[in-house]
Design a protein that fits this description.
With 310 residues, the chain is of the alpha+beta class. The protein has 11 helices and 11 strands. The chain has a domain of 215 residues: DD-peptidase/beta-lactamase superfamily (Beta-lactamase, 3-Layer(aba) Sandwich). The strands form 2 sheets. Strands 1, 2, 3, 7, 8, 9, 10 and 11 form an 8-stranded antiparallel β-sheet that branches. Strands 4-6-5 form a 3-stranded antiparallel β-sheet.
């Protein structure tokens, strides 16, 4: 394995048989028993897991009194596309505890989903449309359930965020190495790719009713975890028992109900090799997903594509 941020080559883009571009990074695959099936790159170097830890954040909320039906709980663990169904569900969560869109403190943004963003047009960005608004609504609802301050819920020392940190460190079996803030404004904690895989495997096989509730909700409502047409939703719909969550700057986690876990981080922050890498990695476990063809064109003809290097 390499010992630097660049990691090792995980995917190559070819044109007429020549490698034109590469994507390097860090990848680890854990077998059902937790042993390492494969590791590439610097899997013991800290990274920011970004939105891949939302199932852990949601677990901390449920553990501290958040009570939502599975459809809405899946949204709390989501990076949603910003469709009407997503935005409406965020408002449901808020209205259920006597709050409104004005109480959200996530960043302003337009919808994340491509079709949703196009439909949005030139309208100004809003907090409701931001892909993390479901998580923030869940955080606010948890605060109301506990009588915690809803104005300061993003502060690192807020009881909610202290609970989130405890949940993450317990699942990862480690202390986080860097504390900062995510793009949405919520606290963010660094861990290694190996530690992230440990945490995802742990929450996947956990017998804790809180973890079971959260993971079952995400699997039952994959369209709420991401959105119609997106890789995460399509893959979860096509493979029974599979959990998947992407994060900004090209972090991906995938797990099966038996504990098999795949985690990777692309060093350049690009998502374009996600489908190719995931498809190839899961094939090693005999799990077939729809192959995500990434074609390279010479005019109207296909002259190359993306291939995984595992």
């Amino acid at each position: 394995m390499s010992n630097d941020f660049r990691g090792e080559v995980l995917a190559e883009l070819t044109r007429n048989g020549l490698v034109e571009s590469i994507h390097t990074g860090h990848l680890i695959m854990l077998n059902a028993d937790g042993s390492v099936h494969k590791a590439k790159g610097s899997v013991d170097m800290p990274i920011f897991p970004r939105s891949t830890v939302k199932c852990m954040q949601a677990s901390a909320m449920v553990r501290n009194g958040l009570k939502l039906e599975p459809r809405l709980l899946a949204l709390v663990a989501s990076s949603h596309s910003g469709a009407k169904a997503h935005q409406g569900a965020v408002l449901e969560i808020l209205a259920g505890v006597g709050l409104s869109e004005s109480d959200l403190q996530c960043a302003l943004d337009k919808p994340l989903g491509e079709a949703e963003r196009i439909a949005w047009g030139e309208k100004p960005a809003t907090r409701l449309a931001m892909n993390c608004s479901g998580k923030h609504a869940g955080m606010l609802a948890t605060c109301v359930a506990n009588g915690w301050n809803v104005k300061t819920y993003l502060n690192a020392d807020h009881p909610l965020q202290v609970a989130v940190l405890k949940e993450i460190e317990t699942l990862a079996s480690t202390k986080v190495s860097n504390k900062t803030f995510d793009g949405c404004g919520a606290p963010l904690f660094a861990m290694t790719t190996r530690e992230l895989a440990t945490a995802i495997r742990a929450i996947t096989i956990s017998k804790d009713p809180v973890h079971i509730e959260v993971m079952n909700a995400t699997r039952a409502f994959p369209e709420m975890v991401a959105g119609i047409g997106r890789l995460t939703t399509r893959t979860m719909q096509s493979v029974p028992g599979l959990f998947m969550k992407e994060g900004a700057e090209a972090v991906e986690v995938v797990s099966m109900a038996d504990g098999r876990t795949l985690v990777f981080k692309i060093s350049d922050g690009s998502w374009r090799a996600f489908g190719t890498i995931m498809h190839a990695a899961l094939l090693e476990w005999g799990i077939t997903t729809t192959e995500e063809a990434f074609n390279v064109y010479g005019g109207a003809n296909i002259v190359g594509g993306m291939r995984a290097v595992l």
